[in-house]
Give the backbone structure.
Amino acid sequence: MRDTLHKLALAAAQKSHSPYSNFPVGVAILSADGKTYTGCNIENASYPEGWCAETTAISHMIMDGKGGTPHITEIAVLGLKADLCTPCGGCRQRLAEFGMPETKVHLCNQEGIVETVTLGDLLPKSFSL
Ligand code: THU
C-alpha cells in the first residue's frame, strides 16, 4: 500500500495547477474502508484563492461518502520538484479533522517515500472542540 500511495500521489502531482508557485503537490489518502483518494494543489491568479493538494483529496473523500465522518489511516504527500514536502499548518489541522494521532503521513519525493511520520508528530496537542 505504501508504494500504491506514492504512485497515486505522483500521478496527482502531475495534474497540479501551480503556475504561480511552480511547486506542484500531489496527495493520496487511504481511508479506513480501504478506499484511496487523490488531490493536487490548484492555484489562482488571485493568489489567496488557490488551495492545497490535501484539501482537494479531502473533498473527494467527503463527496464519495454517505455522510458521517470518514477516517484517514494513511496519507502520502509529494512535492514534484522538492526533496521533501510536509503538509502546511492549515492542512495539518484539516487532516486532524479526519485522522488520528497514529495516522501515518508518508513524506515523498518523485522517487519514493523519504520519511514516514504520524499526524501526532506533525500536530501535537491539536485543537478540537
Ligand atoms: N501546498 C500544498 O498543496 N500542500 C501543502 O501542504 C503545502 C503547500 C501548495 C500550496 C501552493 O499551491 C504551493 O504548494 C506552494 O506553496
